[in-house]
Design goal:
With 248 residues, the protein is α/β, with parallel strands linked by helices. The protein has 6 helices and 9 strands. The chain is globular. It binds 6-phosphogluconic acid.
Length: 248
């Protein structure tokens, strides 16, 4: 497990700009090396500004026709629902990039959750040309952090945290009386690079628990992203970093 790189920015705006710069940099490297950039997007509200920047200020900095878009998780709602992670990414970024439909690998939130998970696994196996038992390796995995230290839709105490064979699973979210589909830990932690984008004082305790707390992935699922071979980077604002004792 390599030590994560922690980059603290003055405020959320600066953190989102830095995240867009990092994504642009990794995209260029991946496209130069592999002729393709396999990017796994996160949902939630934090990345909205970053996605908007990628589609505007950084639009010409990435060869978007070489990017394959995937998601770390999805809420089980239709794609045009305000809660849809696909819908958020489409409104803020994808619809402005003139992509071919085959570049966008959304999770079908409108389907039965288990069927949606199985369909997403089939898409991943086809997109990454996987044999049975193999896992997809993303060039970059974007992740947010819940104030309870969840990542993707892997929540504290959820049995899905221990899934070691599936690529994606349907999960229950008791706090929301909702269902979601999430990538599993083996997939997330296999990523070449993982970028956490976390802002706001509400996340300060979760950031401290994950980065400086006791090793307890059952309580702090985001710690599981640190246990693999990925190069992990945290881009956080001062508010989210306010409880950290060490800031590199
Ligand atoms: C989701 C995300 C989830 C998110 C965190 C942080 O579907 O909501 O994948 O893991 O990244 O809950 O969400 P905010 O950015 O809204 O605080």
């Amino acid at each position: 497990m390599s030590e994560p790189k922690i980059v603290v920015l003055e405020d959320a705006e600066a953190a989102c700009v830095r995240a867009a710069e990092e994504i642009t940099h990794v995209a260029g490297e991946a496209i130069c090396t592999h002729a393709e950039f396999r990017l796994c997007l996160t949902g939630g509200s934090t990345p909205v500004k970053t996605y908007e920047l990628l589609a505007t200020r950084f639009h010409l900095s990435v060869d978007w026709k070489e990017v394959q878009f995937f998601w770390g998780d999805e809420r089980c709602v239709p794609p045009d629902d305000q809660a849809s992670n696909y819908g958020m990414a489409d409104r803020t970024m994808l619809e402005r990039l003139e992509l071919r439909p085959e570049q966008v690998h959304r999770i079908r939130g409108e389907d039965d959750p288990e069927q949606a998970a199985r369909k997403y696994e089939d898409d991943l196996r086809e997109s990454f040309s996987l044999d049975e038992g193999e896992f997809p390796r993303f060039h970059l995995m974007l992740l947010g952090l819940g104030d309870n230290a969840h990542m993707a839709s892997l929540f504290p105490g959820d049995p899905a945290l221990h899934e070691q064979t599936r690529l994606a699973v349907a999960v229950n979210v008791p706090a929301e009386a909702a269902r979601r589909v999430s990538l599993t830990v083996p997939v997330i932690s296999l990523s070449e690079r993982i970028l956490f984008i976390v802002t706001g004082e509400k996340k300060a305790q979760a950031v401290k628990n994950v980065l400086e707390g006791s090793r307890d992935p059952e309580r702090y699922p985001a710690q599981m992203a640190l246990a693999g071979q990925s190069e992990v980077m945290w881009i956080i604002d001062q508010a989210a970093a306010s409880l950290l004792t060490r800031k590199s």
